[in-house]
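B., you asked whether I could sanity-check this one before it goes into the benchmark set. Here's the sequence:
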Amino acid sequence: MIVVDDQAVVRAGFAAIVDAEPDLTVVGEAGDGAGAVSLAAAEAPDLVLMDIRMPGMDGLTATRLITTPGNGPRVLVLTTFDLDEYVYEALRAGASGFLLKDARPEDLLTAIRVVAAGDGILAPAVTGRLIHTFAQGAPRVPGTSGALGRLTPREREVLLKVASGLTNAEIGAELGVTTGTVKTHVNGLLSKLGLRDRVQATILAYEIGLIRPRASRES
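And here's what the prediction gave me:
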């Protein structure tokens, strides 16, 4: 993986946490978005740990460029900013996960492994803010609702449950099928909808109004 952050001390800290793990390796570091794009092309990492606010090319633009080919590395955004617009735009740009920089090292490592394995992840606090954004009326993506017509009734049902935050095991228990069968349905719907992971599937479900966020209580 590569670590992207405009602060050298922060990059070194993240790299040290990752390199201490026997199954994870940092192959490079970049201090801005342009450097991240070049390094990703040169090193072909499995994952990019990406900051958002950087001088020059920011992390959102870099994420979009890195993930656009469709077969590029997965991107896990890590930032001190938990503002709704950054969460939404990072995920729309192609990121597969979003964590805050104050996450515990063990949570960071878990997120890296989850995203590298092909799934998506959102920090709990971020998830709440994201759903609140949709509750207030997030922008709809034109044409995406028609894609649902390609799903089987069971795939559509699974999509609803994925967007509700259920795991494969929980979905299997509710539908009375095996976890493996659920995984097959999830992979099928992701392929038909042109999505990379469950996070993007959840975003789509909210964007097209397939699922509505519950009324939230102000804390």
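One thing to flag: The CA atoms of residues 80 and 102 lie 7 Å apart. Otherwise nothing jumped out at me.
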